Amino acid sequence: MSKLGFFIGEFNMLLVSALAIGLVIIVGFLMVSKIKKREPIPISYKIIHATATFIGALIVVIAAFMGDFRLWTNIILALIIVALGLWMAFGKLKKPVAKSVLVCHATIGIICYIIFIYYIITL
After folding, report:
1. Coil, strand or helix at 74
2. What distance in Å separates the CA atoms of residue 21 and residue 116, rounded to the nearest whole number?
């Protein structure tokens, strides 16, 4: 175990990551509610969503490199989730495509989070 892992503890690292990713999901749902109401999404939502994603994912990657190989499942899924999120953020998507990309992004994200919570519980 690395000095960082020894100092913080793998469980605590993953718990912090789970809280950050939980915030990502909550803000994601808030953004979807704004979309459904046809209201503009505040920039603060986007910043919180992206920043919490980065923090949560970084901790997962550190834990994976510290030896928790189960987390690679989450890392692969997260790469797909991030790619879909970036596609939505920067792509010029027509409405039917945008909706399907959003549904895939959210569904894979929730599945990834459930798997991650299972890994934490069974640590």
Report:
1. helix
2. 10
